[in-house]
Design goal:
Chain B: InterPro entries: GTPase/Isobutyryl-CoA_mutase, GTPase_ArgK, P-loop_NTPase. The complex is a heterodimer of chains A (133) and B (313). Chain A is of the alpha/beta class and 133 residues long. Helix content of chain A is 42%, strand content 18%. The chains are: A alpha/beta (133), B alpha/beta (313).
Chain lengths: 133, 313
């Protein structure tokens, strides 16, 4: 038995800046995780379908477009509709504090990392929140 | 985990995904799950796609899938990327080129890390093919990691193997080297929009002129471009022609038998390896020999013989 944490790093919506997503993908790889990267411009439906087929533990959304209040709830909702609400959703990007609070309180995300977060913090968060059965 | 099997057989994709994870992780339920799945396999046709990194394998898979879907067959895609020998992690990026089919319920895409295997695939790949077969896929496409000259495992997994090359990848000496150039059922010169395609075709045809025919099949050399879809439908027709040829000449059945014998052998080898690692190498005897090895008091052959005595009296 050799359990490996699997993470989907996704860029939903219309912003084309994926440097941050690629840095995170690389860092998680170096932390021993299997990282599926989707590429740019994904619809919530595409993200959820990939998360299910790849059977990931966590979906990481990189959003710099300002559409986070729409995208997070939509993805959580689609995961639930597909019986996959055990998959956690984390996010990163330029997301204001009050929106982070609202998204977390609404149950639309497990955690959001804003600019300034260290890679070590993100790795530690995943390692402590993924249930290794 | 067992309860997922029934749902898998009914075509539930979440169950397929969960079972694949169980197999990759070598979970405790794996032998029982495989026992239940096995009678429902043997129907899918397996298409292998191999070639060097950046040759356009993923884009080609995307294009071929389009052709297959136009004929309404259900497709499973296994895309393998390398696992880091240092961290054990992997960056699985083949989906990026397969966007066309992301929402098509007739296509199931799974990315895999090699997790220590060196032959261009993961050791779990063979069982994942069975899962997708039982899930109802008519065709399973396996995309290997970007290979060099000698990662050839795909030849034991696929019914039809495509070797994907690009123009300008070496002179004609490269084409007569042993290894990857010998396992193609069909050669694909992708990125044919670039210069040098004609020369590449000539080099490979020249090599094939000197190769013995396997049951009357001479691997066709096809120039494709995924930029404009050039020759992709011809490629799909050629793949079907090869399948027909395999069946008509009895090669298909022969290959299936050979593959299953090999699989049993591999399972025995793996189990023996586990015993060796658990009983032989971890009981301290190895570490006590290390000092002697370093000091040249005993040679590696003698040391191995010493350790093996317990098994081979």
């Amino acid at each position: 038995m050799s359990r490996r944490i699997r993470v989907l790093v996704a860029k939903p919506g219309l912003d084309g800046h994926d440097r941050g997503a690629r840095v995170i993908a690389r860092a998680l790889r170096d932390a021993g995780m299997e990282v599926v990267y989707t590429g740019l411009h994904q619809t919530p439906e595409q993200v959820v379908e990939a998360a299910i087929q790849e059977d990931v533990d966590v979906v990481g959304l990189s959003i710099l477009s300002g559409a986070h209040m729409t995208l997070f709830p939509r993805i959580k909702q689609l995961l639930a509709e597909n019986g996959a609400d055990d998959i956690m959703v984390m996010g990163g990007g330029t997301i204001p504090e009050e929106d982070v609070k609202e998204l977390k309180e609404g149950g639309w995300t497990e955690e959001i990392f804003t600019p300034g977060t260290t890679i070590e913090d993100i790795v530690a968060w995943i390692n402590s929140n993924v249930k290794v059965d | 985990m067992i309860e997922y099997v029934d749902r898998l057989l009914q075509g539930d994709r979440r169950s397929a995904a969960k079972i694949i994870t169980l197999i990759e992780n070598d979970g405790a339920d794996k032998p029982e799950v495989m026992r239940r799945i096995y009678p429902n396999t043997g129907k899918a046709y397996v298409l292998g796609i191999t070639g060097s990194p950046g040759a356009g394998k993923s884009s080609l898979v995307d294009e071929i899938t389009k052709q297959i879907r136009a004929e309404n067959f259900k497709v499973g895609i296994i895309a393998v990327d390398p696992t880091s020998p240092f961290s054990g992690g992997a960056l699985l990026g083949d989906r990026i080129r397969m966007q066309e089919h992301a929402l098509d319920r007739g296509v199931f895409i799974r990315s895999m890390g090699t997790r220590g295997s060196l032959g261009g695939l993961a050791s779990a790949t063979k069982d994942v093919v069975k899962v997708l077969d039982a899930y109802g896929c008519d065709i399973v496409i396996i995309e290997t990691v970007g290979v060099g000259q000698s990662e050839l495992d795909i030849m034991h997994y696929a019914d039809t193997t495509l070797v994907v090359l690009t123009p300008g990848a070496g002179d004609h000496i490269q084409t007569i080297k042993a290894g990857i150039m010998e396992i193609a059922d069909i050669f694909v010169i992708n990125k044919a929009d670039l210069g040098g395609t004609e020369k590449m075709i000539t080099d490979i045809e020249g090599m094939l002129d000197l190769s013995p025919l396997l049951k009357g099949w001479r691997p066709p050399v096809m120039a494709t471009s995924t930029l404009d879809g050039k020759n992709i439908s011809n490629l799909w027709e050629t793949i079907k022609k090869h399948r027909r040829h395999m069946i008509d000449t009895g090669t298909y059945r022969e290959a299936a038998e050979k593959r299953l014998r090999l699989e049993v052998t591999e399972i025995i080898q793996r189990k023996l390896m586990e015993i060796i690692e658990k009983d032989l190498l971890s009981n301290g005897k190895m570490s006590s020999l290390t000092e002697k090895l370093v000091n040249r008091e005993i040679d590696p052959y003698a040391a191995a013989g010493d350790l093996l005595k317990k098994f081979l009296p």
